[in-house]
């Protein structure tokens, strides 16, 4: 067991990186057991010791105070230098909540209505067709709206399923090789919708198009809009689409699980590997999955969410808007009205808001938690959630594509078991 003094030093170190804005505190003062938090530490150590992860960072904030920060393991399976708390992670789809907040900032300013047709801002997508098995693709029954876009009900897809005919078209189109977001939309316009707008929840490139909408309404390049309106006000100095050369030494390798060998492998990004490029002049700013960040930067963003849209005196979004975004906007949970990215027990009891998954009933997922919790994760295993009932923010950072491990569920268990005072 880590001595209490050493644990406090690690939390203090994490706090210094947060520019003293999220102060550490003895966990018991926030209704959390320090002894029980040791189980969360040992969870990460077990995964590393078993060779299932190269390294992992976990961070827990309750009531705006840091009660846990743990760094375990090394940079990569082929790089035995220690993992450090300021290392840079590909956060992939944890970019999506940031994009949603950016869009809803413009909503608050009267930039758009959720009932507006998408084509009002992206006319390139005015004449989309809906795929059918007969091959005579037809016009949709209704236009895609901004609400469809933000809730993954627009009918777009991603290309994840090689057995699906529309996804095969997405793969062949190589959308993420587009020069910029406008070019992305032009290429997307050549593909059919997988579903009628509003018919199904289907994980898709909709959030990349949301980034283009932000560009069109704001008149700013998407990366510049995020920097000016979210990253700089929050003090997120290590979040970007392109890793600056002077920070490349902190950029971690990515991994995959080699099932045939039963061990971790390093993704060869020099060959592409289906991954976005993070160097050499990035011009396609993917609002769906393009950002790189650190655990402390993302904690700033997540703490802003926990605190009703404000962080360290910077108001990013209104509290009423945020509550609206983090309510379920689907008629039922995702497993009832959705298709797409590995619909399984992880989505049971979960709805979807404007940019966030929302827990409706933790009993359905068979994992401890609170109704009203909102969250999302990334393709390389990163995850975060905000639990308004328990006043919690939890972040887990790894770099493992398509992780086969139940780590996210275990993070929930080991976090919630540490609470010795509950608001429920």
Describe this structure in words.
The protein has 424 residues and is an alpha+beta fold. The protein is built from 13 helices and 16 strands. Strands 3-2-1-16-15-14-13-12 form an eight-stranded antiparallel sheet, with helices on both faces. It has a two-stranded antiparallel ribbon with strand order 4-8. A two-stranded parallel ribbon has the order 5-11. A hairpin with a 5-residue loop joins strand 14 (374-377) and strand 15 (383-387). Helix 2 (34-49) packs antiparallel against helix 13 (407-416), helix 3 runs parallel beside helix 7 (206-218) and helix 6 (181-188) crosses helix 7 (206-218). The longest helix has 16 residues, at 34-49. Residues 1-8 and 341-345 have low confidence and may be disordered.
């Amino acid at each position: 067991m880590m001595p209490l003094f050493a644990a406090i030093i690690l939390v203090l170190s994490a706090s210094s990186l947060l520019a003293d804005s999220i102060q550490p505190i003895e966990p018991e003062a926030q209704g959390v057991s320090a002894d029980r938090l040791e189980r969360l530490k040992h969870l990460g150590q077990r995964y590393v010791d078993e060779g299932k992860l190269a390294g992992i960072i976990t961070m827990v904030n309750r009531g705006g105070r840091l009660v846990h920060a743990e760094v375990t393991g090394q940079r990569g399976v082929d790089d035995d230098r220690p993992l450090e708390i300021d290392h840079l992670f590909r956060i992939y789809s944890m970019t999506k909540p940031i994009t949603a907040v950016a869009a809803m900032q413009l909503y608050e300013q009267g930039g758009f209505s959720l009932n507006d047709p998408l084509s009002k801002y992206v006319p390139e997508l005015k004449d989309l067709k809906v795929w059918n098995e007969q091959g005579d693709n037809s016009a949709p029954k209704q236009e895609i709206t901004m609400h469809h876009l933000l809730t993954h009900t627009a009918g777009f897809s991603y290309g994840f399923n090689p057995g699906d005919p529309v996804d095969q078209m997405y793969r062949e189109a190589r959308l993420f090789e587009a020069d910029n977001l406008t070019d992305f939309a032009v290429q997307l316009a050549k593909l059919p919708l997988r579903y009628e707008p509003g018919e199904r929840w289907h994980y898709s490139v909709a959030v990349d198009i949301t980034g283009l909408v932000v560009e069109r309404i704001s008149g700013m390049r998407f990366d510049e809009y995020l920097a000016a309106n979210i990253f700089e006000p929050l003090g997120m100095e290590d979040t970007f689409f392109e890793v600056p050369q002077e920070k490349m030494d902190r950029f971690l390798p990515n991994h995959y699980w080699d099932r045939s060998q039963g061990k971790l492998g390093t993704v060869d990004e020099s060959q592409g590997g289906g991954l976005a490029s993070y160097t050499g002049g990035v011009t396609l700013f993917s609002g769906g999955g393009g950002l790189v960040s650190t655990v402390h930067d993302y904690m700033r963003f997540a703490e802003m969410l926990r605190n009703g849209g404000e962080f360290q005196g910077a108001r990013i979004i209104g509290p009423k808007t945020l509550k609206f975004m983090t309510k379920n906007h689907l008629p039922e949970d995702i497993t009832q009205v959705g298709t797409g990215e590995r619909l399984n027990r992880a989505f049971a009891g979960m709805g979807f808001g404007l940019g966030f998954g929302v827990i409706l009933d933790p009993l359905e997922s068979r994992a401890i938690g609170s109704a009203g919790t909102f969250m999302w994760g990334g393709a390389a295993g990163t995850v975060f959630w905000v639990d308004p009932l328990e006043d919690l923010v939890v972040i887990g950072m790894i770099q493992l594509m398509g992780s086969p491990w139940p780590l996210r569920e275990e993070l929930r268990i080991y976090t919630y078991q540490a609470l010795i005072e509950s608001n429920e």
